[in-house]
Amino acid sequence: MNHNVEVLADKTALIERSLELVRAKIDEAIQQRDRCTIALAGGSTPKPLYESLATFNLPWEKIHIFWGDERYVPPTDPDSNQLMARQAWLDRVNLDDANIHPIPTQGENPATDAQHHEAHLQEFFAISPGEFPNFDIILLGIGDDAHTASLFPHTSALQVRDRLVTVGNKDGQPRITFTVPLINHAHNVFFLVAGASKQQALGQIFAAEADPLTYPARLIQPLGELWWLLDEPAGRELAV
Ligand code: 6PG
C-alpha cells in the first residue's frame, strides 16, 4: 500500500487537488485497462468534485459509476447518494444508463437488495463468489465518528470478509455498503475530509494505536494507493 496524506489550505484547494488526482487516475485506468470503474462517496464533501467532473469531456463510454454505500431510501429521496451524484454530475454528462450501477434500495429489504447488488458486481466483473474485483477508484469520506462508507463503529458490517456488499446500520437506519475487503482490493482509494469536526476522528485514525472497531476507517488498508486529502481545519492537528 502506497500511503499519501496531503493537508490543503481549504476545501476549495482540497476539491481542486482531488479533481487533479481523480482525473489522472481515470486516464491511467483507461490507458492500462481500457475502462475505469469508480465507486462514489455520499455525504456532502464530494459534491463540488462531482460538479467539477461534469465540466470535463471524458471518454464516458469507458467509465462505469458505482457507489460505495447508499442510504436505504428511494433514489428520489433527498438523502439518496445516487440522487446527489446524478444531480451534481451524472445527469449533466453523456453517460449511458448501462454505465451507471446504483445500489438497489426498493426491493424486499436491505439484505435482498445487498444480495442483488453483490450478484450484479460479480456479473459485471466476471468473478466468482469469494473473489474480489479491483475497482480503479473508490472515493470515501469519514464521519465525525470515523465511520467510512456505511461501515459504522461496532457494527457487524465491519466483520464481513466473504462478501462484496453488506447491510450497514446508522442509528437503526439501514444502509447498504461495500465491505472492508472490497474497498481494500481497490487500485486507488481516496479519502476526502473537510472541516474541524473531523479532527478528533482523524487523530484516532492516524494514532499509533486505536481500536479499528471504534474507528472503522483504520480498517481501510488498500492493496493499491491510499490518498488522504484533508483541508486545513480537518488536518491541522495531524503531525504529517
Ligand atoms: C454517506 C457517506 C458517508 C460520508 C461521511 C462523511 O452515505 O453519508 O458515504 O460515509 O462519506 O459521513 O460525510 P460528509 O462528507 O457529509 O461529511
TrEMBL record:
The keyword Hydrolase applies. It catalyses: 6-phospho-D-glucono-1,5-lactone + H2O = 6-phospho-D-gluconate + H(+). Pathway: Carbohydrate degradation; pentose phosphate pathway; D-ribulose 5-phosphate from D-glucose 6-phosphate (oxidative stage): step 2/3. Its EC number is 3.1.1.31. It comes from the Bacteria. Keywords: Hydrolase. GO terms for molecular function: 6-phosphogluconolactonase activity. SUPFAM superfamilies: NagB/RpiA/CoA transferase-like. Pfam families: Glucosamine_iso. Gene3D superfamilies: 3.40.50.1360. Residues 10-228 form the Glucosamine/galactosamine-6-phosphate isomerase domain. Belongs to the glucosamine/galactosamine-6-phosphate isomerase family. 6-phosphogluconolactonase subfamily. Hydrolysis of 6-phosphogluconolactone to 6-phosphogluconate. This is 6-phosphogluconolactonase. The gene is pgl.
